[in-house]
Amino acid sequence: MLKPKRELTINKDESVILNHDRVTICLGAAYELDALAKLLPDVVEGNDKMEHLVVRGIASRIKSLSELLMSGLDEEVKTNAHLTRILRVTD
């Protein structure tokens, strides 16, 4: 019987290894979040300007977080400090 392949490995030094399939799944979710964030402002009726601005703000944050996920999973040049600054922009 074949041993199932590991999809996520947490090493003793706290480094993490994600297999290719898991990275692809996570990136797919991030891309979908990005698409939803782009679509969201167009769904709000134009009658209520304040409501539209709130939805645009929420959509912008969702887009920012999806970009953070994509960068964190797929770009070695992005440092943890850089990603943390994006995550904690509201702190």
Describe the structure.
The chain is mainly α. It has one domain. Helices cover 64% and strands 7% of the residues. It has three helices and two strands; from the N terminus they run E-E-H-H-H. It has a two-stranded antiparallel ribbon. Helix 1 packs antiparallel against helix 2 and helix 2 packs antiparallel against helix 3. The longest helix is centred in the last third of the chain and has 26 residues. It is elongated. The termini are far apart. The mean pLDDT is 84. This is Cell division protein ZapA. It comes from Candidatus Nitrotoga arctica.
Structural class: mainly alpha
Largest sheet: 2 strands, antiparallel
Give the helix tally.
3
Sequence of strands across the biggest β-sheet: 1-2
Q: Spans with pLDDT under 50 lasting ≥5 residues?
A: none
Protein name: Cell division protein ZapA
